[in-house]
Amino acid sequence: MRAITLTMSAFGPYKEKQTIDFTQLGDESLFLITGPTGAGKTTIFDAMCFALYGKASGDDRDHDTLRSHFASVDDHTEVSFQFSLHQKVFEIVRSPKQEKRKARGDGYTEQPPQAELYEIIHGEKHLLYAKVKEVNEAIEDMLQLDYEQFRKMVMIPQGEFRRLISENSKEREEILQKIFRTYFYERVTKQLADESKKLQQQLERLTNQEEQEIKAIQWPEDYDIEVADTKQARKDLQLYITREIEEMKKQEDAHHVKKQALNKLQDQYYLAKELQNQFSEHDQLKEKLEQLATKQEEINIDKKKLQKAKDADRVEGYEIQVNQRKQEFNGLQQAGKDKEENLQKVLVYFEEVEKKFHTAKEEEQERESLKESVRKMKEEHEKLKIYVELKRQENVLATSHNEQVTSLKQLEQKGQETEQQLEKMEKETEGIQQITEQFYELSAREKEFEQLLKKGAQLKQENTKLVRFRQLFKQIKEKYDTALEAEKAQKLELQQLEQSQRHEQAAVLAKTLIEGDACPVCGSSHHPYKAQFGRETVTDKQLEEKRQHVEAYEKNAEELQKQYVDITSDGRSQGKTVKHLEEELTDLTNTSLHADNIELKMSEWKQEYESISKMKQQMEDQLKQLRKKQEDQKTWKQHVVELRKQVQEKYTELQSLNEKLIKVQSQLEQMGGEIQDPSIDVHVFAEKITEKEKEYRDKIENWNNLQQQFEKAKDQKNSLQVEVQSIKEQLIKAEEILNQVKKEFNREVEAKGFSSVAEYEQSKMEEQLQSELEQSVKTFEEHLHVTKSRYEFLTKELQSKERPEVKNIEEEIKQRNEQLSADAKAIQQKQIKIDRHETIAGRLDVIMDEKKVLEQSYFDIGELAKLARGDNQLRLSFERYVLSSFLDEILFQANIRLDQMTDHRYQLVRSDQIAKRGAQSGLDLEVIDFYTGQQRSVKTLSGGEGFKAALSLALGMADVVQAHSGGVELDTLFIDEGFGTLDEVSLEQALHCLSDLQKGNRMLGVISHVPKLKEEIRAKLNIETSSAGSKVRISIS
């Protein structure tokens, strides 16, 4: 980028339009910007920077305050900057937010910021963008530099030189980040850290799961669970399972032997019991036959009722049809009545709408006449606006003429007062330098306490989270332990219910056994000892409910286990966060800090911060007053010189005002004959036009609405008439169908043998009641037949037999069954224990395999994350490593110029020392002093030496950025102050270096008060001040 022209209007100290044509410099690409303090030298840099980016060149200047204080409300603040880039010429025009007069009425309105970007082709301007956002984006895309990069490499403002070399490593990192846009490496570092943390949390969760699984194992009493690690515990568990299986096999073999002995005893018992049961059954059957004989007459009556109900069912279908047809007929009657009522309402509404429609149609001529009247009033309004504007101009010009005459009389009086005011100001501003230094020291301390308070608040917040995590951990652990105990109790109850049900199933099977037939379980044909029912029967529903309860308890325990693992992991992670913040604050304060006492420390820091802020504010107010006096002092110095010049300018302005006033008055006279009533108020006339337009729009809208209402009412009337006629026809047909189905119903009632409809109604019976009655009759007859047959069979079988005694056998069987049940329960518990341990073993295998994979991933990602964030021997992060390579290139280029300017004494190097207290390294600067052979911090350089180092660094940075970014052209460099710190030799060396830069066709602008530069640099931009603002003049000596 190379500057061509810069035009400023009402900008900074420049009230009048000032155009700087840099092409007038010719071959002099090194030029000096000179003038009194406060004249507006830096404002030229501000104007360029504002035109390109909408911001001033320095941090201490707000772009919203760039409007000239000399400007009146009618003066428009604007900057136009024309420059060349890549063999093309562009012009950008930008204006800040400012107030302007309202177009109508009195008062002011705020004009928002504006920006336009043009390309100049063959002398013609072609608009590229006209929105602020679009222009900003286009400039950054064209220059390949954002605002911060531009300030660091193209335009170095006051106070920025020393910062280039004196900033700490962290601040230099932020500068290089913005310049080389290395945010990608920071994102990669963060992504690695996040992935590492995620893997660590997953590993901690798996470790907790391992611990919970191992704790859930029912180890033998002699096993030390605290000694074994996970792998050893898994190995021991497998051995324990094998041993348990072997023990259970021995128990099962012993149980089988006892069961065989019991079967033999049961065979004897079953034979005796069977004979006893047959005698008992014979007695019961005899009694039951007598009971059945008494119910026979009742059953016969039920059979007759059942037959009548079935006949009634066959007639019911006809009755349903009658009811359906009657319901349809009644529905049509009601619908016809509703439609007829609706039709009458619509007919009344249609007549009203039709009458309004014809009335509005006759008003067509009136609407057209109103439309023409509105058109003529608008033409008259435009003429009236022009007339009012000319009248306003006449008043403004007349007022300005009077003000100029008064101003001339006041100029001579001001000259006498100026010298007295200057002497007073010089005495008041003597101590400004000392106060400025104290102000910057307080600002630095204020920032330190701001950082401490911010970190302290963060530590307090994170520690509060940690306390909540600990409380939640305690609650979840208690719930989890309780859930495990409840789950264990429910499983024991389920085992007992399952054992009871198996006994019940054996008793059910025993009841169906017949002597001589083979048992489906053991195959024996003799059944002397059948299983007996217990005191309480266990149903499948009870068992299923208990299983669901057990599943619910298991699910609850698993969910609490997950919560327990998650809260443990989150708590450890939060603890590390708190510890990290404590370490950071310890590093910042050089004192050991703990989260528990952070509130006390923050209170101390806040008191210090408020005290410093108050002192800083007092100094800032004092500095503002002194700087304002300095600025006023500059103005008064030029005031006397400008007075005579202003008198001449006033006469010229008065003559110009007279010419403009005569021209406006002539136009007013001409316009007065074209307007019917020039005295009418423009706004009042506009309101009349608005009223007329509203009247016309209302009439048109009313006419359109009436047309729509008329058509809609007409359609609705026709539709309802058709619907009413249709319903009448349907009613006639429905009545005929209803009479027909009534006849069929009566005929069917008579055919089924009912004497009347009332008898038919009495004979109807609900389907469920019929089914129950029919089933009752059927069951009775089957029961009678079975009972009679069985009784005759048993009478024949028991003719030659006697009742047996089975009480002693029952007692012995009971004792042996109890022993077998105890053995079976022990075996079952052993099996449950083995199943549970095998399940745990399977889960442990899955967890260990998953953990092995995660550990390998965590090892790789964790090491990369540590390396990337600078947790390594060099304390160098990934992004800093990249930035350090850029910095090395910058230092290489910078040292070429520093070597010239310091007569081969100094060379800038990147420090290889490791930062203290965990801070990041890699971007600190040191200087090699070849006179002493020592390497020391750049902060030890004197003011002049520091300026030369900073200037070299800025030039080197521009070279490196241009080399790395193919689209960047850095053909321009502006430097604001700094040369005053150089001695005569150093100044000569710096000028020699700057002269070399001209050979590369680079434009260099320098702001300085140094007399030597005024002598050596031929091309100058002279800034001249006056009470009416500053002006720029180019000179080449």
TrEMBL record:
Pfam families on file: AAA_23, SbcC_Walker_B
InterPro entries given in the database record: P-loop_NTPase (IPR027417), Rad50/SbcC_AAA (IPR038729)
GO biological process: double-strand break repair
Domain of life: Bacteria
Leader sequence segment: none
Coiled coil: 185-216, 248-312, 353-500, 543-570, 595-744
Keywords linked to the UniProt accession: Coiled coil, Exonuclease, Hydrolase, Nuclease
Domain Rad50/SbcC-type AAA positions: 6-214
Family: Belongs to the SMC family. SbcC subfamily.
Stated name of the protein: Nuclease SbcCD subunit C
Biological classification of the source: Bacteria, Bacillati, Bacillota, Bacilli, Bacillales
